[in-house]
Amino acid sequence: MEDFSTIIDWSRAHFAMTAIVHWCFVPLTLGLAFIIAILETQYVRTGNEAYKKIAKFWMKIFGANFVIGAATGLVLEFEFGNLWSNYSYFVGDLFGAPLAIEGIMAFFLESTFIAVMLFGWNKVGKKFHLTATWLTAFGACLSALWILVANAWMQAPVGMEFNPLTARNEMTDFWAIVFSPVAINKYFHTVTSCFVLGAVFVAGVCSWYLLKKREVELAMKSMKVAAVFGLFSALACAYTGDGSAKQVARVQPMKLAAIENIQDGSTHAPFSIVPGIEVPSMLSIMSYGDSEAFVAGINDFKNGNAEQGILSFEEKKVRGTIAKTLFAEFQEAKKIDDTTKMAEIAAVFKNPEFQKNNYAYFGYSYLESPEDIVPPVALNYWMFRAMAYLGGWFLLLFSVTLFLMKKGKLESNKLWLRISLWTIPTAYLASNAGWVVAEVGRQPWTIQDILPVQAAISNVGLHTVQGTFIAFAILFVVLLTADAIVLTKIIKKGLK
Amino acid sequence: MTHTDLQTYWWLIISLLGALLVFLMMIQGAQVLMHCLKRRNPQWSELIFTTISHKWELTFTTLVTFGGAFFASFPLFYSTSFSGAFYVWILLLLTFVLQAAAYGLRNREGNFLGKNTYDVFLLLNGILAPLLVGVAVGTFFYGANFTVNFSNIALDAQNATISSWSNPWYGLEALTSIPCVVLGLAVMTLTQTLGAQFIANRVADNELKERAEKWFRYPATAFVVLFVTFLVGLLLKDGFAVDAKGDVFMEPYKYLTNFIEMPLIAVLFLVGVLLVLFGIFMTWVKKSRKAIWFSGAGTVLAVTTLLLVAGYNNTAFYPSASDLQSSLTIANSSSSEFTLRVMSYASLMIPFVVAYIWFVWRAMTRKQTSQKEVDDSSELY
Mutate which of A5, A22, A82 to test chain B, going by most B C-beta atoms within 10 A? Predict the structure, then answer.
C-alpha cells in the first residue's frame, strides 16, 4: 500500500514538474507574440525602421523562449500515456479529439508561420511578414484553446456517457464540451493571464534599459505598447477570474472550500484576506452573487449536509460502487456472451437518472476514507492568494506606469522602474500559482468525481518513475539555466 | 460512413502521418551528416545547420500531431504502448527535447553548454529518434509484451489498470528483437539518405553538395540491404490475423497475403519502393539535386502502405506476444463512432493546412541556403 501511494505521488510529481516547466515558457510566448505583432504593425503602418528593429529584438527573445516551451509541450503530451495510462484510455475518446484538432489546426499554423516570422524578413514582403507574425500570435492562442477545453472537461465533465462495452467514457456532444461555461471561462482567463505575463516581462526589461539609460527608444516604445496591452489584459483577466470563482463554486465546491480553508459551511460566508482578517459575506457574494448564499465547507462534503442537499462521502461511495458493480456484472455477462443481460445493463448506463445518481460518483468507489477527497488546503489557500493579489498588483503597475509615461516622469522615477523590473518573477509566480490552484485544488480527481489518481496511473514500477523523474529534472534544470542565461545575454546586448 | 469506415479512414490518416514523420526525419538524417562533415569543414556544418534550422519545427509538429491523432483515434494503443513501452518513448522524448534545445540555444551568445554540446545533442537525436521509431514500428509486426483487461476497472484502485506490460524492461526488450532492430536501422539509414539528398538540394555550395552525395552512399547502401532483409522476413513470417468473432490467431504468410488481397496497396507500395530506389539512383549516378523529391514521395508511399498492411485486412496492428487475445486491432482499439466522425470533419482542414505549408515553404525557399545566410542568421537559431 505504501509503495502504491508512493508511485502515485511520484507520478504526480513527474507530471507536475513537466507542466510547471512548460508553463514557464508558454505564457511569454503567447503574450510576447501579440506585443511583437503590434510593434511590427506600427512599423508597417508608419514605415519607421525603429519599430522594425524593436520587433526583431523581441523576436530573438521569443525564439529562445518558444523552443523550450514546444519541447516540454511534447513531453507533456506523451506523459499522459506514460504515467496515466488508465486515465488516457478512460477519457481518450473525449480528450483525444481536442488534442488531434489542436495538432491539425493550431500547431501547424503556429510552426509554419513562426519560420516566416523569424527567418522571413528578407524572403517575403512586408505585409506577408506582418500577416505571418499575427498568424503566429493567433496560432499560439488557438493552440491553447483545445488543450484548455480538454482541461476544462476534466474539471467539469459534460457531453459524454459511460459505455460498459468499451469500459470508457464516450463523447455524445462535442459542442457541449467546447462551449461548456467552464471551458470558455478557463480559456479567456488563461490566455489573458498569459498576455499579462508577456506585458510584465516587456515592461520589466524596458525598465532595466531605462535604469541603465540604454536603448531608450526601444524601451519607451515597447513600454507604451506593453503597458496599454497589459492594462486591458489585466482587466480582462480579473473579470474572467471572477467568472472562474463562480464556476468553481458551481462545479468544484470542494476546491473552493480548500482555497478558502472553510471547514464548516455557512451563509454570509466571509472572504479571508489573510488568516485572521476577513471581509464578512464577501465569499458568498463572490461565489454566488448573493450575500445569503450558503458556501459549503470541507466537513459538509466529508459528512454530508442534508439541509443543503449535500451527500456525504459514504453515500457517494455507495452510489459509485453500485455503478462499478453493475459494470463488473456487464463484463461477466460479456465473458459468457449473455447478450440479453449486456443489453439490459447498457440501457441502465444510458439512463439519465442512473448517470446523475450513480455514475456521477463512479470514482468514489476507488477511495477509502473521507480524507481522500480533501485537497491540500494550505497550498491552495496561499497559491490562490498569491495569484489573486499579484493580479491586482499588475493592474496597479500598468496603470501607474501609463500615468507616469503621460506625465513624462517614468524615466526619472528610478524606484518605480526598479519595482517594475522586479515584478517579472512575480508574474511567473502568479501564473504558475493559478495552475497549482486549478490542478492541486481538484485532487484526488483526474476527472472530477469519476476517476481519482489512484485508479488513473500506469502500471509502471516505482523505480522507473523515480529514475525518469530524476533524468527529466536534471535536463530541465540545465535547459532552464541555459535559456535564462541566453535570454539575459540577449537583453544585455540590446539592439547592438 | 459506418464505424468500420471511420476506423479504416483514421488508420489511413495515422499511416499517412507516420509516413510523413519518417520522411520529415530527413532533418535527423541531416543532423548526422552535419556531425560527420564537421571535422572536414566546420563551415559546412554551419551551412547544414542553418538549412535545417528553418525546417525542424515541421518534423516536431508532425510528431506532436501523430501522437495526438493516435491518442484521439486509437486511445487503447496510446494508453497501452506509451505506458508499456515506457523507456522507448521516454528515450525518444528526451532526444527530441535535446533537439529543440539545440536549435533554440546553439547559436546564441552566452550558451554555457557550448556549441559542441548542442551538436552532440543533435547527433543523439539524429541517430536515436529514427532508430527508436523504427524499432517501435517493428513491434507492429513482431508483437509486444502486454496484456489488456477491461474488467480490471471494476477492481480496487491498485488493480484497476487496464493495460499492463509483462516484463520489467518496458519496451527496451524490443532492442533485442533482430527484425525490430533491422527495421530501426533501416529507418535510421533511410533518414540519413534523405537528409543527404535534402542538403544536396538546398545548399548553394557545390563542394558541400558533392560531399553530401558522396557520404550518402554509405547510408543508402545500408538502407537497401536492411530494408530488403526486413521485407523478406516480413513476407515470409506468420502474421497476426483476426477472425470474424474478433479472436486473434497466427496465420502463415499473413503480410504477404495482405499484399496479395489488397492489390492497390501492393502496387502503391511497389511504386513507393521503386521511387526511393530511383531517387537513390538519381543521386548516386546522375548527381541530381531533384532526387529528394523521388525518394521523399517514395518514402511517404512505402511507409503509408506498410502501415496499412499492418492494420487492414483483419490484421492486429499491435499484436501482443504475451496474450494473443489482448492484441489490438483497428476495430477494438479505436475511439467511438461519434468521436471519429467529429475528428473526420476536422480532418477536412488538412488540405488547407498542406496548402498553406506548401505556399509558405515556396516563399521561404526560393533561394538555396548560402554562406551569407549563415552569417545573417547566426543569432536566430
Answer: A82
